[in-house]
Write a structure and sequence with these properties.
2 domains, HEPN_Swt1, Swt1-like HEPN domain-containing protein, flat, single chain, 12 helices
Length: 272
């Protein structure tokens, strides 16, 4: 019964989105990395919810106006919001796993080597922390992948411009960060070698400097400067929060991480 209700609500949301696209337009599925067929796959619900939010934003510009097709923007927004309120909790389960596991289940899934931290204590005392592990894993997984794809992208563009290493740009701030981290690596032999390119010694937020100070190199790769810089800033802020207190992350923020990462990777992949 519950599964059937979810599918009914999902079908209703898709119907509203498709009607909006057919009657009003202004939504590009390609921007979200899906096609018409994938729009109807419930596994893509996190991305579909982002599309629905864009529909709501556009509808808000019309508020209570009817269009020539008899499309009443305000009523359609109310309907979409009702579907979203029902389906948003489902997206969290899609993003961080299936139905919420018990503490015992979570502990059992932790690698044997990692269980040492729990040895000699009562894990149930830390149920809230353990329950947040999946949120941490999900966010870090997407951000880690996206950050490293961005590094490969920047390396490729710099190479095309005849720049073999970041320090060849003679950017004082980037050079300082790189040389400080290389120095720390040399002093502390237990630190892993990051790689044979300067780019691996720059953090996610450092990468944003390429898209601000050196926008000329990248401007024909993105629809706008703000498109890439704002997404990187958002991901960086989320990563900092996840590292310190992931329990404050909302479902919307988790969905946003997945959507931003997918959009960035899809955009830069064609240039690598």
């Amino acid at each position: 019964m519950k599964e059937q209700l979810i599918r009914i609500k999902f079908a209703g949301l898709i119907r509203e989105i498709e009607e909006f696209i057919n009657r009003i337009g202004g939504i590009s599925l390609e921007k979200y990395g899906i096609n018409d067929r994938e729009l109807n796959d419930i596994k893509n619900l996190p991305i579909i919810i982002e599309i629905a939010k864009e529909v709501i934003a556009i509808n808000n510009g019309y508020t209570s106006n009817w269009n020539t097709y008899g499309y009443y923007h305000h009523n359609h927004n109310k309907t979409i919001i009702e579907y979203l309120d029902f389906l948003k909790p489902i997206t969290e389960k899609i993003l961080i796993g299936s139905d919420k596991e018990s503490v015992e289940d979570l502990i059992n899934r932790i690698k044997t080597s990692d269980k040492l931290i729990l040895e000699g204590i009562n894990p149930k005392k830390y149920e809230k922390i353990l329950n947040n592990i999946e949120i941490v894993i999900t966010c870090f997984k997407y951000i880690y992948f996206t950050e490293n794809i961005l590094r490969e992208f920047i390396k490729k563009i710099l190479k095309e411009k005849g720049i073999s290493q970041v320090r060849d740009i003679h950017d004082k701030e980037l050079t300082r960060h790189i040389e400080t981290r290389i120095s720390n690596e040399n002093k502390r032999k237990y630190l892993p070698i990051r790689g044979d390119h300067d780019i691996y010694y720059l953090d996610l937020i450092d990468l944003n400097r390429f898209f601000t100070k050196y926008w000329e190199y990248f401007k024909n790769k993105f629809e706008s400067q703000n498109w890439i810089t704002q997404r990187i800033k958002d991901l960086y802020e989320i990563r900092k929060r996840v590292a310190h207190n992931s329990s404050n992350l909302s479902t919307d923020e988790i969905i946003s991480v997945v959507a931003d990462c997918k959009e960035i990777v899809k955009q830069v992949d064609i240039f690598i």
